[in-house]
Amino acid sequence: TKAARRQEIIKITEQLIEAINSGDFDGYTKICDPHLTAFEPEALGNLVEGIDFHKFYFENVLGKNCKAINTTILNPHVHLLGEDAACIAYVRLTQYIDKQGHAHTHQSEETRVWHKRDNKWQNVHFHRSASGKISGATTFDFIQQQK
To answer: CATH assignment of 2-144, given 3.90.230.10, 3.40.80.10, 1.10.10.10, 3.10.450.50?
Structure first.
């Protein structure tokens, strides 16, 4: 059913964000197309293609040094674009603890385009806004603050 397919897109999006939060680069690459394109604050308005741009953050910022991170996807809206394509738009709230032990919440607005190939969903494009910045920090800045 369409409702079940929408839930599948929400679930794979949650899995992708969990891979990011936990610094699981292998898990991330399994969910992302090798030619993934993205607009995100870290790219300074440029369209980046491929995984290497993102790998830098996994290797230098994300991972085992992070304290607890909790992400909530609010108001997800899924557009089904046929049997093998979908687009999801949502607000992402990320809760984290800084070095001083203070709790913070970061908000970003995200859109992800999914394509199903060989019976598995792959993220082929995403756009993350910069409007939810906290104190001038991007998503990776606030994760870095936890170390």
So the answer is: 3.10.450.50
